[in-house]
Design goal:
This protein is α/β, with parallel strands linked by helices. The protein is built from five helices and 14 strands. α2 links the parallel β3 and β4. The radius of gyration is 17 Å and the shape is globular. The termini are far apart.
């Protein structure tokens, strides 16, 4: 077994140390004896949508995000749609999450997005939405809590019928008003939780690994349990910070 991971724009979209998500996925595979293959794909590059089981994109500065948005639409839109339709796992965090939608607003400019998810991101005269956050999610018929950190000026609104990743327990979520956080469509997940996300929520990392291995042809995999005492402590700390708001 091996997990084939594609990191999109790792140099531009890593403002919140979200590269730690990639390291965490690698280590959890290595600890189980699962092969791990990482491919980097930057501005001007193209990729084979059938050659990767998990596609990851993090968050970036506004100027970098604009350049990435233009490149995504010009050079990678068709491949992203084909990968999503083929069942590849897609995890997009913060700025990467915003780019999944039809458009997002940068100052007075409307930037075209991928249109891969039914959402739009707009600006608001209010303050940035910053702080610890926790959300309730339901995955595989099990209700779990995801904890992390959010820091975004954009307000994201889902289309009617578009499924959120979860509902806000503490914090702001997509826009600070409707109580929703992130988006989920099949094996696609977009979220504002970063910092990075996965080391604080090890079970979610394992869920993504299982989906990716299944996409790669390994079938439904029962992952070997790991000693997650440190990861559990990190989750408790992040959850405690969110609940203290």
């Amino acid at each position: 077994m091996r997990l084939r991971l594609l990191s999109l724009y790792p140099d531009q979209m890593n403002i919140y140390a979200d590269r730690g998500n990639l390291t965490f996925l690698r280590k959890r595979c290595e600890w189980r004896g699962i092969g791990f293959e990482l491919t980097r794909c930057g501005i001007g590059d193209r990729f084979d949508p059938e050659a990767h089981d998990l596609i990851y994109i993090g968050g970036g500065q506004d100027r970098d995000q604009k350049a990435v948005a233009e490149d995504l639409v010009r050079n990678k839109r068709d491949q992203m749609f084909l990968a999503h339709e083929g069942g590849a796992v897609i995890l997009a965090v913060c700025g990467g999450y915003q780019l999944l939608g039809r458009s997002y607003q940068l100052e007075d400019e409307q930037i075209e997005g991928l249109g891969l998810a039914g959402l739009e991101t707009v600006r608001d005269p209010g303050p940035r939405l910053i702080g610890p956050v926790s959300i309730t999610v339901e995955i595989d018929d099990t209700e779990r809590v995801v904890a992390g950190f959010e820091n975004h000026g954009g307000r994201t609104w889902l289309d009617p019928g578009c499924r959120p990743l979860g509902t806000v327990r503490s914090g702001y979520g997509n826009n600070g008003k409707d109580g929703l956080e992130g988006v989920r469509d099949g094996n696609l997940i977009g979220t504002y939780l970063h910092g990075p996300l996965l080391p604080k929520n090890a079970w979610l990392a394992d869920h993504l690994i299982g989906l990716a291995l299944e996409h790669g042809g390994s079938g439904r995999v029962e992952l070997e349990p790991l000693d997650d005492r440190l990861e559990s402590a990190a989750h408790r700390s992040a959850l405690s910070a969110a609940d203290a708001r």
